Amino acid sequence: MNSELDILILAAGLGTRMRSGKAKVLHHLDGRPLIAHVCETAAKLDPASIFIVIGHQAEEVTDAVNAEFSDPRIKFVRQEKMLGTGDAVASARKALVGRDSRLLVLSGDVPLIAEKTLEGLLETPAAAAILTVTLPDPTGYGRVIRSRSGSFERIVEQKDASPEELAANEINSGIYCFDTRKLFAALEKIGNDNAQGEYYLTDVPGILKHEGETVALYLHDDPLEIEGVNDRRQLAEMERRLRERTIERLMLDSGVTFIDPTSVYISSRAVIGRDSVIYQNVSIEGRTTIGENSTIRPGTRIAASTIGNGVEIRDNCLIVDSVVGDGCVVGPMAHLRGNAEMGENARVGNFVELKKTRLGRGSKANHLTYLGDATIGEKTNIGAGTITCNYDGKNKNPTTIGDNVKIGSDTMLVAPVKVGDGAATGAGSVVTKDIPAGELVVGVPAKSKKTAQACE
Q1: Which stretches does DSSP call E strand in 147-229?
Q2: Residue ranges of the chain with pLDDT lower than 50?
Q3: Which residue among 27, 220, 335, 367 is the active-site one?
Q4: pTM for the whole thing?
Q5: DSSP conformation class of 408
Q6: For 193-211, what is each residue's pLDDT tens digit?
Q7: Is 206 helix (H, G, I), strand (E, B) or coil?
Q8: How far apart are CA 83 and CA 14, in angstroms?
Q9: Which of 180, 367, 388, 426 could form a disulfide with 442 if both were Cys (CB 3.0 to 4.6 A apart)?
Q10: CB-based contacts of 37: which residues, under 8 Å, 6+ apart?
């Protein structure tokens, strides 16, 4: 842990341009709230503490962060009135005043800032270091004004800038690194004599410079990293550019084929192995891993799942929170959810649903079947129309099916029930009692007829 580094994330704003009933930092990018992206990057820097300034919808923002992280370093401070960024930082005075540390100030709506960039900023020796970029069109951003020698002169907000200042194209990212003690001393000296009537954090570097302190500018070359989200158009554009970067990285670095890259949605956290092929209209979300030589066909959505090597996911499947082993075939139009798991070389076909079920190695359920809360052994065949009746009106109950079992079409397995190794059920059976190993049952309710082997 870096005991000399604290991080403060500003997340109290209204975000009125989003035209939304929820706080801006709660809007999703890449499947996660904006604030979650910033917190994740902050944690990678291994600080002593991470403070998040909350205000508008404070409880909702707190809940969203806590849902993503269980990090004791993350704490919340409240900005009682929306009086500007200077006031937001001052809200953390009680928690930070007297700390002999550097304070990295981040914005909760700037989600793509990279760890490496922040490390460069942190290595810049100064009482205040400011991350800047140059933009062809800097409209809307505070301008960084340099002296003739190229050193920091001041920051001026667009609404307060003169025509000459507006001509500058180097902008303030809103990301800073301060000497914590000197920051809070300077905050006591800022005023609100400006167009907004707010206390600007941007005034602090000027105060420090006036007092003889060093103020450094860290000019970065990637504007996308410091881009904030102010409206839904920017959010959609950021989503598009992030997706394009992710697909390009997977094609060039990982050897993945995309049949139509423009039609695919893919999380930046997804990992895909060499020589896998992703068809059009596929959605791969969250921390999904796909192995090598796998094929994901059109219309499929995979979220927070693990797909093995040499797997074929056929058209229009939905796989969520599940594991598919090497060599499996899924679909078309299959549904895996609730921690479903398929063993090596297992198969599920059209209109088959697995919910909280393990289908063993080499087992098959090829047609029109629901398997919920079930454990199924190896090399077992589940006939078309089979249902594990797992819900009794109050509780979900388990079904256990052994190895080398043959379940006839339209069998109803009324849980809790167990089917032994090598057993079989006749078509249309309703199984209400355990079936011993090697036994054949038929009928409604199902009754024993002979051994399954004798029936073959």
Answers
A1: 152-156, 170-179, 215-219
A2: 454-456
A3: 367
A4: 0.89
A5: P
A6: 877 788 989 999 999 999 9
A7: helix
A8: 12
A9: 426
A10: 29, 30, 111, 112
